[in-house]
Fold these 2 entries.
Entry 1:
Amino acid sequence: MKTYPLKNDHRPRFRIPYEDVLNTAQYEAVTTVEGPILVIAGAGSGKTRTVTYRVARLIEAGISPEAILLLTFTRKASEEMLRRASTLLDHRCENVRGGTFHSFAYATLRRHAQELGYETGFTVLDRVDSEDIIGFLRGWMKLNTKERRFPRKRTIASIFSKAVNKGDTIEDIVFDDYPSFVQDIPDLVKLHEAYRMYKQKNGLMDYDDLLVNMQALLEKNNVIRTRLSGVHQYIMVDEYQDTNILQADIVKLLAETHHNLMVVGDDSQCIYGFRGANFGNIMDFPTIFPDTKVIKLEENYRSTQPILDLTNIIINRARQKYTKVLFTRKKSGVSPALIVARDERTQSRFVAQRILELRENGVPLGEMAVLFRSGFHSFDLEIELNRANVPFIKVGGFKFMETAHIKDVLAHMKILANPKDALSWHRVLTLLENVGPKAAQDISRQVITAQKGLAAISDVTPKPAYAKAFEHLKETLIALSQNPFRSVSDIGEKLIDYYRPLLERRFDNHPKRYKDLVQLIAIMERYGDLDKFLSDMALEPPNASVDSVMATDYEDEQLVLSTIHSAKGLEWDTVFVIWALEGRFPAIYAARSEEEMEEELRLMYVAASRAREHLYFAYPVNIYDRGTAMVLSRPSRFIDGISEDILEPWSLGGQEELDYLDW
DNA sequence: GTCACTGATCACATT
DNA sequence: GATCAGTGAC
């Protein structure tokens, strides 16, 4: 018998049946391995699915997981995608490099701090930290002692950040967005320079610096750029419509040597313009990479036809026309509803009652969400839900990590990690009775210039007025620094014991705040390393608000309350959009420019398109707006005047009788 | 000079 | 809730 030599089949064999589980466009995106790809992915079109399958596909095709870089908007998003990819294929997917631009920049810059003039590494400032520094500098420069009010530190921080993220000058930003401070431009420019110097001198970077320095490093240093580009051979970027110029540039530089870059986004869901996001990035992508393959995902798998009919109307109210038309095969469904409530209480009562009814009808609590424009819009509803015993988690709005009592505890930990941290010293010292800004600065300067770490605290001779309190602080810190084997949570517990009396003196509502500290310990328990804990808390803090940080741990069914910004990329069976009131949503500020108003519209589109089956818009009437001295009673312009067979008006019966029961 | 306290004023969204 | 200017006490 003759043996015929069959050649080895070098084509990879794929375990996952991509053809069967993906539509044509998705398949195209998933199986294109090389070259630049732009995926325009409409709401609910299976974007996450596409990215997930592509990760699996690349690895199945033999690409090393370490060569893949997945940049997403939140850490949760990349974790989720990689987890799903692992389920599809195998654990190799866990080795893919995933995270936010900021965390990627942080990790990279840590290794190259010297090239940037940061001699011994750096610490990341969160928003509150950078505001505090700006506050000090403003005081030292005597800018707040004029007759006219100088902008608040918070406003100043916004101006600085916008300038960086939009690539504009301070002057441009003030003229466009803060016209009332035009006279202060020279001082703001000086302050900005002082802020820059201060960060440089003290080894600090704020969020914006991470991007700026990353971009600068890649652009200026050919060796590093080429090496990083070589390491990250396959790059994927999610939510590309919400990247700013710096981020787009970072991606471009990283992909320089290979152009294996897939960006995914939806121009009609760009909602971070205030942060410099520019959906022009999507439009320009094919120009920057001329051989780009453009793929559009237009089949919506999420929403029913009645919901899609409405979201299409909303997005078509934009002046800017967008690039795609969505369709769905889920033809049947109930119409979205529009509910007018006579006041905020009634709106809350409606939502709570309807949620309980839907749960009775079999919709799990975890499949329902209430969305709103601004964090505080849910306060009244939270009270109502507590009363009705509906468990919920709130996402967005005020951050757990940014509350004063949490920052106080973290400041003590930061001192242990880095005794040169002047900002934390200041915070820790001014907590002591009879220690104010002046004494705090004298002490922290003495400790830091001594150059002998925490030990220098023993050389300080405190004034009698605060000697006792200071001794206590000293003993606590030294005791903790002498045992390097303590766990993060152990350190945390000891510090909270120390801090508790100070907390009680500082805050009237200390019992509530103390509970937060107990929750903080639970978070610490997930960490073995103090530095890692601290950098995570700055870079990727839990997104849930104060009361619900821990709630995520037990996975019981919970209603989700969320700002629309934080609801990006998510979906639920049932969505309530509350405060759909002209003057609140769109917010009054948006009337300033057409661009901002367009962004508000896209935000409404994002909110509405989160829903699969049930969608409700509610708004209260007769709301007095202090800023404008107007009474708000109209529905949001984005959903006003839509025919009743698309958006069905509901009127609430029995409002009068019920009303007095609660008051 | 320094610190603690008070009451008016302001507050959109986030890494 | 946090900020900030103004006030009085030491």
Entry 2:
Amino acid sequence: MSGDGEPGGPAWTVLAPAGDRFEFVDLDAEGTETARATLTAAELPALVATRVRTRWVWADAAHAYGRMLVAGARVARAWDLRLCRRILRSAVDPDGHGALGPYDAWDGEAAPAQDEGLFPLQTGHAPRTDEAVVELRRQLAALGGAPDRGRLRMLLHGESAGALVSEEMHAAGLPWDAAVHGRILTEQLGPRPAGGGVPARMAELAEEVRAALGDPSAILDSPPKLLRALRRAGLPVASTSKWELREYEHPVIEPLLTYKRLARLLTANGWAWLDEWVQGGRFRPVYVPGGVVTGRWASSGGGALQIPKLLRPAVRPDAGWVIVDADAAQLEPRVLAGMSRDLALAAAARGRDLYAGVVASGAVATREEAKYAMLGAMYGGTKGDSGRLVPRLRRAYPTAMAVVDGAAAEGERGGTVRTWLGRTSPAPDAAWLALSSDAGAEGAPPALRDLARRAAGDRGRFTRNFVVQGTAAEWALCWLAGIRSRLHAMGEATGPRAERSGPVFAARPHLVFFLHDEVMVHTPAEHADAVIAAVQDAAAEAGRLLFGTFPVDFPLDVDIIGTARAD
DNA sequence: TCTGCCGGCGCG
DNA sequence: AAAGCGCGCCGGCAGA
């Protein structure tokens, strides 16, 4: 293979699984093919090992990289064609060069893993890697014509690195102690009922609720029926949400709220969840990088992004290992300071507590006010304390507020907005545009105008939040990618191995969890300090990558979860 | 019996 | 104390 002649390997290797083998095409930096071959899974690790600088290209990491990891091959860099196309489609002016063309098949969802038709564009005579090579060249050409290609390239690299991390975390799994989880369930619900009946504690609470309502046949699991039962008992509630119930003084409230909490625990993360999602001491959720329009990750199955705090004690490292748990404090307002270049907000963000900094600046009186005002600024709060406090923030931080206010105004007009690195918000759909134009027509009925005004407001709050949430997601991608490369550079450890984490990660620190602004790293205990340093370094680097020398801090809260945790 | 919508609630 | 943004998942329910 001629590509092996270059130090660190070829610039690009386009790879696709083909049955139980893998076919690949090497390209040089100019995109010219230099080699191609087909390999068995067993041959992959040796190939990857010689290519430390190669960027691996595939249609979809979930399809290609997941199999590589099982085969024991980990790559350093990647280009995920499907994720990159989604960003480039809206980032590149479609009327400009038309560089991406109408190949909508690349914009769709990932193909099911067992689907041989992963490349929907395959014409029947071309090898599937050739389709990917064509798409890669198309994307690079589009990127070359993009206005702010430096940032956009960083976003595409970050997005693709995120896809690597998501596959690696799925392969390694989050260490999950089913016995601790079971103990929590038993404490809360009572013993597991045989045959899937109602747990004892819930049955007791249901009886208390029925007694307090004076209604022995009241049904608690159906909101409409529960609502009627509450009203019959004299409670003038409009819904059965706990937010509203909380406001009433009545003997039914406390047992009912407890019942609802336990019902939620049982259905969302009860014994059935444990049976389905935890095997061999690992929880392996399916992450969906870029699954949210803002660029945040989504998840599919297992509710990985909704693990209740109550169950956090079930996260436990293997013997001889620890879990480093780090989250970025007040990430979104800090990102807003960076992207707006607002020096006053950046000054308030100096140090650990941004809200304390806002109070110290005199903008508001208390930390709680600072928190709600900031929430209102980023989400578009209009009512209550939040709406009342936002104008004070506008006076104290006009530069930062101009960014979110401007994004809201653009959204209300029907325009699109962009994150700091260049992810574009979706355009309004046909129904929104139709409503907007109908309501703007001469003689439109007031009710229609109200509807349109509300839709405009909704969209303004969406675009307002899009720029902040999306840029925070970009910071997090840079953070993740930086942690990943630093952990790999640390090398393998001696001592006990985490065999359940798979061949690539059994002896080295590795990421096991990511949730918007939080990461967990499972590491041999001897490396814990080095991991903390890596996570801190990566956070500082993420800030520099996005905002250069602009002085905004990104402090982390870091915890170590040990084997012998006392909870 | 299946499918899609909705209320409700967990997470950030 | 606010209820403004973004998700996924569950059970119930109405309509096919």
